[in-house]
Amino acid sequence: MEDEDEDRRRVAAHIEWQKQGAWVVVWGAYTRRYWAFARWPVPPGGAVVHATDPEALYGEMRKTEREYDFLRWRYGGR
After folding, report:
1. Most buried residue, 23, 33, 77, 78, by CB count within 10 Å?
2. Rounded to an integer, what distance in angstroms lies between the CA atom of residue 5 and that of residue 76?
3. How far apart are CA 73 and CA 9, in angstroms?
4. What is the largest CA-CA distance in the chain?
5. Mean of pLDDT values over 28-38
6. Which of 66, 74, 67, 62 is nearest to 20 (CA)?
7. Distances in Å between the alpha carbon of 64 and those of 2, 51, 61, 74?
8. From CA 17, how far away is CA 10, in angstroms rounded?
């Protein structure tokens, strides 16, 4: 089980790297889920998403990015 958790921690670190610091991503060994915490300005309470696999996590992250206008913040805009 420990090796499996370590692999999933590496996957979480890779996802965080791909997102260039816009998210903090962790593997929850107790919850058996990936968790992502938004690091750009969002409404009070923040934005946290979770999923059991990386593909589903990416989907939840993209949905949240659209909801909170991440691209406008990241790249500027009118």
Report:
1. 23
2. 38
3. 28
4. 49
5. 97
6. 74
7. 31, 13, 5, 14
8. 10
Token pair, residue 2, equals 């420990």
**Phi, psi (rounded to 5 degrees) for 52:** -85, -15
Q: Which 3-state string (H, E, C) describes the chain?
A: CHHHHHHHHHHHHHHHHHCCCCEEEEEECCCCEEEEEECCCCCCCCCEEEECCHHHHHHHHHHHHHHCCHHHHHHCCC
Tokens found for residue 39: 């690091």
Q: How far apart are CA 21 and CA 5, in angstroms?
A: 22
Q: Which of 31, 22, 77 is nearest to 52 (CA)?
A: 31
pLDDT in tens, 42-71: 888 899 999 999 999 999 999 999 998 887
Can you give the pLDDT at residue 24? Answer: 97
